Amino acid sequence: MRVVLVCGGEVEFVEARDCSGKVKDGEFLAREIIIPAIMARKDPYSVVQVVMDNATRSAWPIIEKECPWVVCTPCWPHCLDLLLEDIGKLPFFRLLFRDVNRIRMFLRNKGMALYVFRTYATHSIASPGATRFRSLLIMLSSLLRVKEAVVKTLVDGNLREYIGKYKNQKARARDEEEEGKALGARFGELQALALDDEFWERCKLAQAIMLPIGKLQAFTDGNAATGSKVHYHFYVMQSTIEKLDFGEETELKENVLYLTNKRWDYATSDLTLTGNLLDPEFWDCDLEEKSFDAFCRMVDRTYPLPDESKYAETEAGVAAFQADTAEVKRKRTAAESSATTRTARWAFLPGTVLNLPQQPSPLTTGGFCTA
Questions:
Q1: How far is residue 163's CA from residue 167's CA, in Å, rounded to a whole number?
Q2: Taking the model in full, what pTM does it have?
Q3: Would you list the domain boundaries of the chain?
Q4: Rounded to whole angstroms, how far apart are CA atoms 3 and 119?
Q5: How far is residue 204's CA from residue 71's CA, in Å, rounded to a whole number?
Q6: Helix 183-194 vs helix 91-109: angle between axes, to the nearest 10 degrees?
Q7: Under a CB-based contact definition with an 8 Å cutoff, are residues 368 and 37 in contact?
Q8: In angstroms, rounded to a whole number, what is the distance separating the alpha carbons of residues 161 and 78?
């Protein structure tokens, strides 16, 4: 288990712990790993976000209860990759990728087919690892890139002569669905696919659907600070998909948009909404009410008003309570003033002025990541 701190574009290694033999449930991750790491900081309140694997959501309530100023969020690159996987399970994509993979496996594993393919193609068909991000999109895009070479290979006279010679061969196939089929029958099916314009149109539609998601996934999968930008770019991504021509595949469009909305809701947090509201790049965009609500919750979470019951009922205690309250209100006003720079509609916030902040938003501090 590795814990790193990300702040201001810098990545600081915190600790690595051998968790072999441990039950890595929410209780263990929260109380044994994350909370001690936060409290060990010189200023625990400088940690405002914890990004963890999506399978560890049970740890989030515990962390946020013990450290109420912290927001736990899922990993956006993983969420977007899960969205690609969700879409890949739809019947349209599942059947299409079965055929795409059949072509790829035949051209890669059949020696004569590979030789002929290389005489036409300038690039190979990608076969990324099973756990690599965007694996299906990478494979599909690489196939479309060499479409003409694939067609020429599967109608090549030398390859057809070779297949005719060994057409009854029933070699062990890598794909279970191909198991036991004669080589000639397999080749005929793949040749028909390559010559079917509808097949290639389905490939292009699938690529058009998945490409905006893949681009956003690559955008978030880096060292750049993208937390404040991902909400807007997810909206752009979904709008791009919605504008695509699905033809008669109306059910496919509904299912894809349903899955994107589901993952959007799953990954969105108060922190990403607040970042979207405060990011100057989006000040001319329409303001969402949920972004304002999230911002108010973040201000309450980051700068909670002091609890009067915790102060001594003495003159000194009252003075300390008043001083601490005034300091917290000053910080809350400074945070709220960051929002007023976006649009004059924020003028109703108490104690705010319409001017540009002289300092970065108090909400833009550090966050923990675990792996």
A1: 5
A2: 0.79
A3: 2-75, 86-204
A4: 49
A5: 40
A6: 120
A7: yes
A8: 47
Amino acid at 241: I
Under DSSP, the state recorded for 220 is: H
Distance CA 51, CA 267 (A): 11
d(CA 65, CA 71): 10
* pLDDT above 70 as % of the chain: 85
8 Å CB contact between 70 and 48: yes
Nearest to 283 by CA among 352, 229, 221: 229
Statement: residue 364 has pLDDT above 70 = no
Do residues 189 and 154 touch, judged by C-beta distance below 8 A?
Answer: no
Mean pLDDT rounded to a whole number for the chain: 82
DSSP-derived letter for residue 7 is E
Alpha helices in 89-195 (DSSP H): 91-109, 111-120, 135-145, 147-154, 157-165, 183-194
Integer CA distances (angstroms), 141 to 129, 146, 147, 206, in order: 15, 9, 10, 10
Calpha distance 71→119 (Å, rounded): 55
Q: Encode pLDDT of 102-151 as tens digits.
A: 999 889 888 899 999 999 998 888 876 655 678 888 889 999 999 999 99
Taking a C-beta distance cutoff of 8 angstroms, is the pair 143, 203 a contact?
yes
- DSSP for 32-93? IIIHHHHHTSSSGGGEEEEEE-GGGGGGHHHHHHHSTT-EEEE-HHHHHHHHHHHHHTSHHH
Range scoring the smallest mean pLDDT among 152-156, 251-255, 293-297, 343-347: 343-347
Residue 170 token pair: 């029933």
Rounded CA separation 302/93 (Å): 44
Paired tokens of 320 = 């300390």
Name the residue among 309, 292, 291, 150 with its Cα closest to residue 231.
291
CA-derived radius of gyration, the chain: 28
| Residue of 234, 225, 232, 218 whose CA lies nearest to 367 | 225
Per-position b or e across 205-228, b if 16+ CB within 10 A of its CB: bbeebbbbbbbbbebbbeeeebbb
Least confident of 14-28, 70-84, 139-153, 180-194: 14-28
- The span from the first CA to the last CA of the chain, in angstroms, equals 6
